[in-house]
Amino acid sequence: MAGLDVALFRSLNRWPDGLAPWLVPFSTGHDTLLFRGAILLIVLGMTIRGGRARRAALLSLVAFPLADALCSFLKNAEPMRRPYQEIGDVISRVGLSDSMGTASSHAANLAAVATVMTLGLGLRWGAPWIVVALLVGLSRVYVGAHYPSQVLLGFAVGIACGAAVDGLARRLTPRPRPSSSPA
Q1: What is the pLDDT of residues 143-175, one digit of tens each?
Q2: How many CB atoms within 10 Å of residue 5?
Q3: How many helices (H) and strands (E) does the chain have?
């Protein structure tokens, strides 16, 4: 399995540099003021809209930090090195980190949001979030930050956290009772 992981990593990491303007922002965009402002506007708009949109936006604000925390826990509990920490010929397109790469937090965070959005709003509104999550995961391999298996583990963590948050919210949300009409 490790050989396949390294081979797939090398294949994706060696994609042409011409893709960098399209893929690198999916890997580092969360650090920019523009990205954070756009997300804030989306969440604000969904909250104002109300109903299922508000619920999905607010649950996303719970799910992604939970996914991020679980990835941090895994990185400490079962440290796994990043590709550039053990392979000499990695093309690194972003800054290097000293942290472990066990599970991609980037992939987990977006997978958690995509899961909550899809479960809460259906596939029509969840699909764009799924596409973004997949591009973020792909970009993490392309930039040299993670092995494909680490991205897949991040996706699994994010999906589990998103589904757990959505499921718990459904259990805690009172359901309307059927009205009984007097006979």
Answers
A1: 999 999 999 999 999 999 999 999 999 999 877
A2: 15
A3: 8, 0
Closest alpha carbon to 82 in 159, 16, 13:
13
Domains held by the chain: number: 1
Query: 49: which 2 tokens?
Result: 């809209």
CB 145 within 8 A of CB 94: yes
- How does DSSP classify residue 179? P
| Per-residue model confidence as pLDDT tens digits over 80-138 | 999 999 988 899 898 888 888 899 999 999 999 999 999 999 999 999 999 999 999 99
Full domain range(s) for residue 111: 52-87+100-172
Q: Domain for residue 82, yes or no?
A: yes
What is the reported pTM?
A: 0.89
Domain assignment present for residue 65? The answer is: yes
